[in-house]
Design a protein that fits this description.
By secondary structure, this protein is an all-alpha fold. Helices cover 62% and strands 2% of the residues. Strands 1-2 form a two-stranded antiparallel ribbon. Strand 1 and strand 2 form a beta hairpin. The protein is elongated and about 80 Å long. 35% of the residues are buried. The N terminus is likely disordered.
Length: 325
């Protein structure tokens, strides 16, 4: 009987007596249908894989989704109007904790308006300011940082010095001075005032990331192949510089919401008839001794929102930064 080699098929008898042919040579992997090797995962896929396992990310995402729903569809959470006032019936009426999600759940303010309704409708203005400022600051700061970091030389010197000048201006103090020059402080005025002073941090982060990326082999190869500057910036540099920019932007978003509330509290931010948490905090300080809930409820909403975005930003930072893993 000829001796079996590694390339011959091996016959094994099963319990039922049937014979099963098993490949035992170089074609064994193909015969067995071996799985293909895993594809190389990108930074974003690895980050998403880690984020889904983080309770911090899940909790903060749930809070942010809820806040966005409240801001987009306040009518789903209350049927009361935030501007309906009845001094004779509801002046500083205390909260009624037995009626959940009712107009009197958080009580009424000094003008007889439902605090619960104002908290629900106030989310829209506060979140619009935070998201709007973050989007514009990210856009402006990324453009300035990319131009300074990629071109270097005289361009980098000019843009960096302009950035340093704006960084030297205290953020809240500068916003206070800018907003006092406007008589009608609508939402877009507050957004532009905060953008005017808040783009510097992302610009510095983008500049540092681009300086590192432009020395990479794929950027050098793109230049050697004759790719245009615009294509290199948009196709190779920007996608690889987005990670630190997104981290800074998500953490800063909560700070911009707090800045709007602070400016409104000081009387230079949003004002009546705009419904926002900052406006309610400002009006509630007059009733701090008699009815502290008028001040506490919108302040708690601001704190929860800021905390949610800070938690979200921390989770994203930990997922995108290899040193934090």
């Amino acid at each position: 009987m000829p001796e079996k080699t590694a390339d011959t098929a091996a016959a094994t008898e099963t319990e039922t007596g049937k014979v099963t042919i098993t490949a035992a040579g170089p074609d064994a992997a193909l015969a067995a249908g071996a799985a293909k090797p895993d594809k190389a995962r990108s930074l974003w896929s690895d980050a998403w894989r880690d984020l889904r396992r983080k309770p911090l990310f899940l909790i903060s995402t749930g809070l942010i989704v809820l806040l966005l729903l409240i801001a987009a569809f306040p009518g789903l959470f209350t049927s009361a109007s935030p501007r309906d006032a009845d001094l004779a019936k509801h002046y500083l009426q205390h909260p009624n904790w037995g009626h959940f999600f009712a107009p009197d759940w958080f009580g009424y303010d000094g003008q007889g308006r439902s605090i619960y309704a104002r908290v629900i409708y106030g989310a829209r203005a506060s979140i619009i300011v935070g998201v709007g400022v973050t989007a514009l600051v990210t856009l402006l700061g990324t453009v300035v940082g990319m131009l300074a970091g990629y071109f270097g030389g005289f361009t980098d010197t000019i843009l960096s010095r302009i950035t340093d000048i704006f960084m030297g201006i205290p953020f809240l103090l500068g916003a206070l001075v800018v907003l006092t020059s406007f008589e009608n402080r609508a939402i877009w005025v507050v957004i532009l005032a905060l953008v005017f002073l808040g783009w510097t941090q992302i610009a510095r982060v983008a500049r540092g990331a681009v300086i590192t990326i432009k020395q990479a082999d794929y950027v050098v190869a793109a230049k050697a192949l004759g790719a245009s500057t615009t294509r290199i910036l948009l196709k190779h540099v920007l996608p690889n510089a987005l990670a630190p920019i997104i981290v800074v932007a998500t953490i800063a978003l909560g700070g911009y919401i707090a800045a709007e509330a602070t400016l409104s509290f000081l009387g230079v931010g949003l004002a009546e008839p705009t419904v926002s948490w900052g406006v309610d905090v400002s009006s509630g300080r007059e009733q701090l001794r008699n009815a502290p809930y008028v001040l506490i409820v919108p302040s708690v909403m601001v704190s929860i929102t800021v905390l949610a975005f800070l938690m979200f930003g921390d989770a994203v930072r930990n997922a995108l930064d290899p040193k934090m893993r």
